[in-house]
Amino acid sequence: MAELALELKGVGKSYGATRALDGIDLAIEAGTVHALVGENGAGKSTTLGIAGGRVVPTDGEVEFFGRPLEVGQPRRIQAAGMVAIYQELTIVEAMTAEANVFLGNPVARPGGLLARGEMKRGYTDLARRFGVKAWPGMRAGSLSVAEQQLLEIMRALAHDDVRMILFDEPTASLALSEKEALHELIRDLRERGYTMALVSHDLDEVLDLSDAITVFREGNVVSSRPRSEWDKESLVEAMLGRSASSHRERIGAVAGVAEAKPYVEVRDLKVDGVLDGVDIDVRPGEIVGIAGLVGSGRSTILRSLAGAEPASSGRLAIDGEDLRWPRTVRAGRRHGVGLLPEDRKGQGIIAARTAAENAVLTDLASASSFGWVSRKKLRAQAAEAAVACGFDRERLGEEVRHLSGGNQQKLLLSRWKHSRPRLLLCDEPTRGIDIGAKEEMMATIEEMAADGLGVIVVSSELEELLAMCHRILVLSGGRIVDDVPRGEATLNGLLQKAFSEVGSAA
Amino acid sequence: MEAASTSIDGNRRGVIRAALDWVTRYPMLVVLVLLAVASEIVYPGFFSWGNLQNLASQNAAVGVVAVGMTLVIIAGGFDLSVGAGAAMGAVFYADQSGNMALPLALLLTLLVGAGFGAINAFFISRVGVNSFITTLATTSVFTGIALIYSNSDTVIADAANFDFLGAGDIAGIPVPLIVLVAAFVIGELVLKLSVFGHKLFAVGGNPEASRLAGLRVDLLKASTFIIIGVLATFAGAMLASRVGIGQATFGATIPLDAIAVVIIGGTSLFGGEGSVWRTAVGLAILAIVNNLFNRMALDESAQLVAKGLIVLFAVAVETRFRRN
Predict the structure, then answer these.
(1) A336: nearest CA partner in chain B
(2) Do B206 and A346 count as a contact with CB atoms less than 8 A apart?
(3) Is residue B206 exposed (0-12), middle (13-18) or buried (19+ Cβ within 10 Å)?
(4) Higher model confidence: residue A161 or residue B281?
(5) Is the ipTM, as predicted for this complex, more than 0.85?
(6) Which CATH number fits domain A4-242: 3.40.50.300, 1.10.10.10, 3.40.190.150, 3.40.50.970?
(7) Fewer CB within 10 Å, N- or C-terminus of chain B?
(8) Per the CATH hierarchy, to which homologous superfamily does domain A245-336+421-506 belong?
(9) A353:B210 CB<8 A
(10) CB pairs under 8 A between A and B
(11) Which residue has the higher pLDDT, A290 or A204?
(12) pLDDT, tens digit, for every residue of B259-277?
């Protein structure tokens, strides 16, 4: 048997009465890419956190290349040759790219002065190896997320003795082309003998990259096998503990839309430097998808329609009625436009408040009389909306920060289930949530559409758009460059369209 | 620690854990109870009606401002200018009390406070200046106005019943005590039960999410500054009423005391979390400590040191226990 890089023996983690990880065994062979998958809360991120040192296990032993790992000591673990790239990047935006790479470990001359020349050389070296184009003196805050992530990987590799890298959802916020680049990098690192552990929700990515896959469910390891013994179906089944309703069935669930006249008409939507005259029609009950690269202005379309982008202009009509272009979110809401924002944590939830309160935040008045909130009404209103979105009624009293991403997302959607918009805008509705929650989100959105409102969905996951939309618009260079009806749309077609236009525009 | 706890049987462990959980959640309530018991032991009669009346009267002004400060901080702001507001309230109320009926004078005083609050609110909500910086600057502005208004002199109020607000009583209950209790009860009810209160939590907890949910973030935040502006001049009027004069130097310790009280109670300085009852606990702790020091004849400089250490301790406790 090959040498083991990381070995967990009976490792468990309890938070109060909750058992997040229930005494698992896990072995990762040196020089391989090992994926950890499972639904949110299954224990994979906890495992990664333990290996990286930021979560202290309650019991069990961890060995790193045959030696006990000093759990809970991130610096010692790093010194031993293991680094973690977490989802929340630790880039200092106000510092230069170079300074970020040598952050916490600057090269210094005797006397404490920085060895600038040496660091610059070190940076250029690393940059060449990993194809990073960022100028060493650039402010890190001006770089894209993908570039910042590269900086972080470079920082990890600046230590010569690194042997293993932990990736937590590394591609969750990357555009397609950037994803590909990172995949290349990971393969390249494997070639150079690094061991890697990878937590990802993207099963295609997992199947594509890894040598072995371990599936977690409810704090336990369900199964740990070489890549060759897995396929997508078996993975999903292992994760859920049951077979998922297949894509095919779900596609059939999207009802056809009558050839009615458009319910929502958007004309000449412009935002300086981003959108250059976008027209969109949505028929009643129709789900229209918008595909495009990150930065193509997808989110800006939704934000503009919701009134969150004051610098936008255009014409909007709903149900045959010409409306004033919304310049505030309140105006948008009066028109009956609801936005499910892209960034759940930053733009969606109020973390310290209860689930119930979050569910009715857009319409607190409905849960109150004469300005006083009625607990009973709040509870009832929230329960009605949230349960319809697949949220567990029993958890309505919990603070939202303790809920999983999937549950948080269901709550955000239930805001609009509750206040019934005419146009529902969903920006990345299933980003970073587990498969079960994903299906429920999609089903709820389809149900809401079937009530006769208009829905526009933006997603980086083209497969998701293909599965749930009646029509997919391709956005590129600030314009709609293609309008593909369901049935004719294919993954490759959409991809090519989205990319080719960028190429020709540049 | 793990080894020790695993040897205890499950049931008892559950009780201990629940108790520990409660203590870590409300550490300051434990501190208050300990303090109260200790002071009653050291000075029997500490909890006599007379001493309680005294405590309430001494701390009413800070308490009223602290209620407002709780709202401001929960909505994500901060107000240093309340001392200057109180000073203005004191000289204005003392001065106007000679010109018109007292209720009218008080109403005018509160309007001035609302005006001060509106100035803060404008710069913070409309222009977008950080509230710390804004109120640091307006402290100077408002103090200056109070000094100009009073010609830097003591304003003597000799209207009949001028002392009602700060030293009067209704059916034997001191007015400051009534005011104090009313302020805390109303504050707590508004925060916990009203739509307005719920919105303040949302705005302080996540302004961007609140905006995208259609809340009028600017207006909500602005309203907290106007409320505290009114409460600050009210506190000033109480101070003036208590001693029968108004001075632009009144209320100098109010900002730090009010903020200290909110923090000691455990309301998060980052906004979005907290409550008025917590502030009440904070106020009670500070009041008892001050009272104890006075009885021990500790001089004021020593009191300052002790007060600062208590605030530091409270913040340390919050950081270690509650942020997790």
Answers:
(1) B214
(2) yes
(3) buried
(4) B281
(5) no
(6) 3.40.50.300
(7) N
(8) P-loop containing nucleotide triphosphate hydrolases (3.40.50.300)
(9) no
(10) 76
(11) A290
(12) 999 999 989 888 999 999 9
